[in-house]
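> agent: user asked for a holo structure of the chain below bound to adenosine-5'-triphosphate. Plan: (1) validate sequence alphabet, (2) canonicalize SMILES, (3) run complex prediction with ligand conditioning, (4) return tokens. Step 1... ok. Step 2... ok. Step 3 dispatched.
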Amino acid sequence: MNSKLQNNSIKSSIINVILTPFYDFGGRIAIMFTLVLGLSKVAGGEITFGLLLSYLIYTERFYSPLLIMSQLITSMQTSMAALSRIQNLLSIKSKLSWPAKGVLFGDVEKATKKILEIENMSFRYDENTSVLQDVSLTLVKGKKYAFVGPTGGGKSTLAYLCARLFDPSSGKVKLKGVDIRKYNKEQITDTIGFILQEPFLFYGSIAQNIKYGNNAIKDLDDNDLLELLKKEGLDEIIKRFPQGLSTEVSKSSENISLGQKQLIAFVRAVLRKPQLLILDEATANIDTLTEDMLEVIIRNLPKETTLITIAHRLNTIEDADVIFFIGGKKVIQAGNLEQAIKYLDSKN
Ligand SMILES: Nc1ncnc2c1ncn2[C@@H]1O[C@H](COP(=O)(O)OP(=O)(O)OP(=O)(O)O)[C@@H](O)[C@H]1O
Ligand SMILES: [Mg+2]
């Protein structure tokens, strides 16, 4: 691709280098011609000197739009290439289908203590990469769970499936006793908070990023939002940004550090008061002091909040009620940290 780009750039430069002087040269020749012919006519008394001058100015003016047009064609071609890329992006359709109406919450909620059940689920990204095979697990409301396992083992994938970012290839995911495919988008995002391993920020202010997709707070101005954050004990986090809530996120968000992105994702998720909160390596890039602060915030969440923590460092999961090992396409339930360490020892 690079050498193709190089070849095309050379070609376009050559054309440019030939065409521009050509236009320029044409312009000069025309002026010269007008001047020679005009002067002889002025000398013969056929036209006045003023008329010749007007002619000269018109000739000059005739060529500059031509030059601009040639530049316009170049920039139009660049734009067309960009347009086709944008069209490709816009035409991507989700493989998930969503029901128009969601589940009637009240009845379902009372019926079960289980927030999430996975039944004989298998998942593959494509034909060749089977990531999870025949996995079953149950998560009960209000408990703390941890997913641990080797890099590339499928922890994030399992979390995506829990939040219906993908549908299983076979088997079922149930949210509060009902097939997760029966809920509409709003119900899922209201119920499940997800802090991705690679958080994404939009171009705009930190405040806009926090309010994004949250109907309950979308109309708050910065002062009201700050009040709300204070009430929830989240305002300390905002102090980590130079201009607080009005700190601007640049287009590719490179002016915000990875840890700071995780902090915003954290605030965004916690403000929704989700019933299931998934933290995928959510504190991996955050210093220990800030991490302690987040831990306090998590501990203060309503006690019926179910928590899934994905982590490599054992200190982040030491108070988990149940630990799941994820690797080799399987999920193994290993009790609490003590049992987990015993299990690991027995494997070594
Ligand atoms: N979008 C994708 N398309 C195809 N394969 C993928 C995709 N995402 C992940 N995989 C593959 O699925 C497997 C599991 O990836 P996953 O991200 O779930 O691992 P993980 O346990 O979260 O790893 P880590 O500890 O590094 O975060 C890997 O082998 C990976 O290559
Ligand atoms: Mg991961």
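> agent: step 4 complete. Summary for user: Residues 41 and 63 are 23 Å apart (CA to CA). The pocket of adenosine-5'-triphosphate (ligand 1) is lined by residues 125, 129, 131, 149, 151-157, 197 (CB under 6 Å).
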